[in-house]
Amino acid sequence: MSDTYMLEATGLTRRYGGFAALNNVSFKLRQGEIRGLIGSNGAGKSTCMDVLTGRGRNQQGTVCLNGQDISRLSERERRAVGLSRSFQKTNIFPELGIRQQVQLAARKAEFDNTEEVLAELSLTAIADRTASDVSYGDQRRVDLALALVGKPKLLLLDEPAAGLTIEESLAMARHLRNLAERWKLTILLVEHDMEVIFAICDRLTVLHLGEVLTEGLPDEVRANPEVIRAYLGSTFA
Ligand SMILES: Nc1ncnc2c1ncn2[C@@H]1O[C@H](COP(=O)(O)OP(=O)(O)OP(=O)(O)O)[C@@H](O)[C@H]1O
Questions:
Q1: Which CATH topology does 1-82+154-237 take?
Q2: How many CB atoms lie within 10 A of CB 195?
Q3: Cβ 21 under 6 angstroms from ligand 1
């Protein structure tokens, strides 16, 4: 990990009428860091990911990627400069071939490393099958492939382990950790599975009611009484 900040988010805010779904949220991610973004349902995690990627209207705040202010760029332009996102609900087209959709994502990212990504995620052997024809675990890896194509600098992951078994989730977590190191990726990870969060995150940011409740090392966060009260309960205390 170096001293460079790959992401500097300052004052991120999104209001719906008088309600602030996200209120003045700021954080910085060092290059190579895996940051967990956690918080209870409705805390503002998805809204935060939306604002970072430029999805939707009516947002305030500044987003800098590797020193470049990208706040005024469109979603597509942000993708092309290295900010990529995978979604909570699978983003894949069931009837399209796996290789075909990775190639389509490559076109959007304006950089084609389809075969490398397929190999990295052990998808080469099934790349000519349609997504509906492979297992759910394989589909989650296709989702990840779509986000990884183009070699992004910053990867935003929305619950990559959702619906997987504990073994599959932990295997996915190990794979991500390893991949982040080899590809020099910085990752912001939204995940409700605390096993996954504590297995791979360097630091955690906790959102509560649209604001940052606290930020720190995983062990500090899990021992923080406010976090236990607002989110973790006694399970991880
Ligand atoms: N389009 C919208 N209009 C009005 N309120 C919205 C809209 N989208 C989200 N919200 C509200 O903003 C708040 C934050 O929602 P958000 O989806 O970001 O939370 P979250 O932390 O991602 O939750 P979850 O863990 O359930 O996905 C919630 O109170 C939600 O109801």
A1: Rossmann fold (3.40.50)
A2: 14
A3: yes
Q: Would the CB of 47 count as within 6 Å of ligand 1?
A: yes
Prediction pTM value: 0.91
Q: What is the ipTM of this complex?
A: 0.96
Which amino acid is present at 212? V
Q: How far apart are CA 90 and CA 151, in angstroms?
A: 20
CA distance 116 to 114: 6
Atom number, ligand 1, closest to the C-alpha of residue 210: 14
Q: Decide whether any atom of ligand 1 lies within 6 Å of the 44 Cβ.
A: yes
Element (H, E) at 163: none
Give the span between the Cα atoms of 109 and 83, in whole angstroms: 9
pLDDT at residue 237 in the model? 47
- CA–CA gap between residue 163 and residue 153 (Å, rounded): 27
Whether 16 lines ligand 1, by a CB cut-off of 6 Å, is yes
Q: Is the shortest distance between the CB of 208 and ligand 1 below 6 Å?
A: no
231 lines ligand 1 (CB under 6 A): no
Enumerate the domain spans of the chain.
1-82+154-237, 89-151
Instruction: Say which DSSP state 97 is in.
Output: B
Residue 87 burial by CB count (10 A; 0-12/13-18/19+): exposed, middle or buried? middle
Q: Which residues of the chain have pLDDT under 70?
A: 1-3, 88-90, 234-237
Q: Which atom of ligand 1 approaches the CA of 48 most closely?
A: 18
Pocket test for ligand 1, best of 12, 13, 46 (most atoms within 8 A of CB): 46
